[in-house]
Amino acid sequence: MNTYGRLPVAFVRGEGPWLYDADDKAYLDLLGGVAVCTLGHAHPAITKAVCDQASTLVHVSNWVNIPQQAALAERLVALSGLRNAFLCNSGAEANEAAIKMARVHGHAMGIDAPQVVVANQSFHGRTMATLAATGNAKVRAGFEPLVAGFIHVPFGDAEAIRKLGTERQDIAAVMVEPIQGEGGVNVPPADYLPQLRALCDANGWLLILDEIQTGIGRTGAWFGHQHHDIKPDVMTLAKALGNGVPIGACVAGEKAAELFKPGMHGSTFGGNPLACAAALAVLDTIENGQLIARAQVIGARLSSGLKARLGDNAAVVQIRGRGLIWGIELDRPCGPLLNLGLEAGLMLNVTAERVVRLLPSVVMSDAEVDQAIDGVATLIEKFLAS
pTM (2 decimals)? Predict the structure, then answer.
């Protein structure tokens, strides 16, 4: 179906941070399948885990115990300090599970029609509930009537949520991204998440953090909220969790851990042996390679390099991000940079019309990071001068 505005390129193989087309032209991948391939392409540990698992057992169904699923849930709980996990196939499914949890929690609070507070410019998925939660009118357009139960407020504005809490008695949860990805790599004030944690505690709401783009090391911590020394009640994951193998997770803390009972939620393919084997290999590789620290180093190098090259350009509004997620906001729409990037051997992304979004892998060398800085800066400089 005509659902994608595809770029004029087809990749036939990848190696580390590089992609190659049929003519063997190399492209430095600064998109990573939209924050998926944090470990780059064809990583040997992931390849081995997938091949080994596929040679023994791919799928059995959740009517039986799945050892790989239990092992993955235990790892996610240990890394997050939360209590249990539901495994699914995608970020949208993980967010659907979180929204269902919010409604169950709201009903337990005695609310007939529980509301979830969400942010403008957010992106939570393309299913009907996650679409309604998403704070982007262009994404929602054409799919009305939308699912009810969401209240949109400005991102980064804890006071707006505090005020809502004094005006309404039907709120059950607050759901936000630690850093908005699709919305333009929007980084909230440092005290935003701690304030939301305090508000949720004071009002009995669930704090749901959509870590689908920021999780699994992308920000230089296992999860984006860990930079702020808080814990959510519910956290959703996907993207980098499988490094390209589809998998999602909804991880719950004490307040939400027992909301689901047998028969209330499920997934045919969720948490099957193949996907879980891939995810376990991802976690092992990041942990054993000390790649969380490496993400911090790459982030610092990208930040200083991009600001040195572009920081004084009047057409560059802001350079913002953390770890392996960066946005360069320009003062004009910059969609043409996608094709110009391909011509220059760079795979990148433009989001929110004016923001060049960079989502590189953690396996880049210092030289490759410097190559990315020079390539992106040169590309933007030429575009702005044209």
Answer: 0.98
